[in-house]
Design a protein that fits this description.
InterPro entries: MFS, MFS_dom, MFS_trans_sf, MFS_Transporters. Keywords: Cell membrane, Membrane, Transmembrane, Transmembrane helix, Transport. It is a multi-pass membrane protein. This is MFS transporter. The protein has one domain: Up-down Bundle (Growth Hormone, Chain: A). Helix content is 84%, strand content 0%. It is globular. It starts with a helix and ends with a helix.
Length: 410
């Protein structure tokens, strides 16, 4: 039985569903704030202050990405079996412990250990969190809720880096502990605001959801193509901050970069996406957004100052805000409601593989481009990979649309 079926069996009132969705918005704010104030500064701190190579820090970020998204399937399967709220509570406590331990990680082994611990927390709460949204919304309300949720994320992404940079002037440990406190607070929010769902006396076998995933080929194709997308998208946390700091010589430029990105999200996320979805399908908006992101990343290879870099960041951010709610809508729409947690866990593999490779490749390409004096190299690679993703998504969604149209007329 999935979260959605369990909700139906307990007859959640409309007020309870609304309270749960509002609670998830509050949860989203602190989740993103805690992450955004710390994670973009990891590369800057460990490269510039600790003296690690960018490739080594990229490896640590990749380990976190691969561990969290790779094990998110386990979190999704467990949420289908034991309930979403239990897994969310466990996950945020592990994430809080992981972020707190970063305050005392002074070398690569300790950095890797802290990253793994925080990743385990994310693996436990990410799929249950996404599945809860999918379960408490329907096809009519889901796009609007995702747009609002991503707007809240934009506000948090604006405040997070600014707060992180401000605290960094005192001590990196304070940044880590404050970020950990955000996730500790989310433990209380989950307990108080998220609905308690009674699970069935005889839960389905753990392989039941995996069998449903294997039979859903459109879902698998979408997940595979999103790996290329995430390869490019994660550069905002590795390649972008490193280049911003190198162009200006100041860590404050990282905060300015994220403030611009998040400010555009706050200003445009809800209105632009809703306007586009009235004129284009979710799939078309997704393809357009990935294309804009890719071209903006490629253009960075041709800029020589921070102002030009910020123009490219703005284009990248506009493309990203178009992709976030549309990919979530498409994934939730393709997921089988009998095993939402498992499906949302499998979808995290796209970020695990694509994001993990993107973090390692991003750090390595930045180092290589500096050593060989090829400033265009990393950005050309990011552009090419992104355009391949856009082309694949266009072809896949177009073919699926034709099949569905033919079935409707048969």
């Amino acid at each position: 039985m999935s979260i959605e079926q369990a909700n139906t069996s307990t007859h959640l009132s409309e007020a309870a569903r609304r309270r749960g969705l509002n609670g998830l918005l509050v949860y989203t704010f602190f989740m993103v704030t805690g992450f955004a104030m710390l994670m973009p500064l990891v590369a800057v701190h460990y490269v510039n202050d600790v003296g690690l190579a960018a490739a080594a820090v990229g490896l640590a970020l990749a380990v976190r990405q691969l561990t969290q998204q790779g094990l998110a399937l386990l979190g999704g399967v467990l949420s289908d079996r034991y309930g979403a709220r239990r897994m969310i509570c466990l996950g945020v406590l592990l994430r809080a412990a992981g972020f707190a331990s970063l305050a005392f990680a002074a070398d690569l082994p300790l950095l890797l250990a802290a990253m793994v611990l925080s990743a385990l927390g994310g693996a436990m709460f990410e799929a249950p969190y996404q599945a809860s949204i999918a379960a408490l919304t329907d096809e009519r309300s889901r796009p609007r809720y995702y747009a609002i949720s991503n707007w809240v994320s934009g506000v948090a992404t604006t405040l997070g880096p600014l707060l992180g940079v401000a605290l960094l002037h005192f001590d990196f440990r304070i940044v880590c502990l404050t970020a950990a406190a955000c996730f500790a607070l989310n433990f209380l929010i989950a307990l108080r605001l998220l609905p308690q769902v009674e699970m069935p006396p005889q839960p389905p076998p753990l392989r039941h959801g995996l069998d449903l995933v294997r039979g859903n080929r459109p879902f698998i194709r979408l997940v595979a193509l999103m790996m290329l997308y995430w390869f490019v998208a994660v550069q905002i946390n590795i390649s972008f901050p490193l280049l911003a700091q190198r162009l200006t010589g100041s860590v404050d430029s990282v905060g300015a970069m994220f403030a611009l990105s998040a400010g555009l999200t706050v200003a445009l996320q809800y209105g632009l996406v809703r306007w586009l979805e009235k004129r284009l399908s979710s799939a078309q908006v997704l393809v357009l957004g990935v294309t804009v992101m890719s071209l903006a990343a490629g253009a960075i290879g041709f800029v020589a100052d921070f102002a030009g870099f910020l123009v490219c960041v703005a284009g990248f951010s506009i493309g990203a805000l178009m992709t976030r709610p549309t990919q979530q809508t498409l994934i939730a729409g393709l997921a089988d409601p009998r095993a939402l947690g498992t499906f949302l866990g499998v979808s995290s593999l796209s970020l695990a593989v694509g994001g993990g490779i993107g973090n390692v490749a991003g750090g390595w390409l930045i180092d290589l481009s500096a050593a060989r004096q090829w400033p265009w190299l990393p950005w050309s690679v990011f552009c090419l990979v992104g355009l391949l993703s856009a082309a694949g998504l266009h072809w896949t969604t177009r073919v699926r649309g034709r099949i569905e149209a033919a079935a409707a007329h048969s």
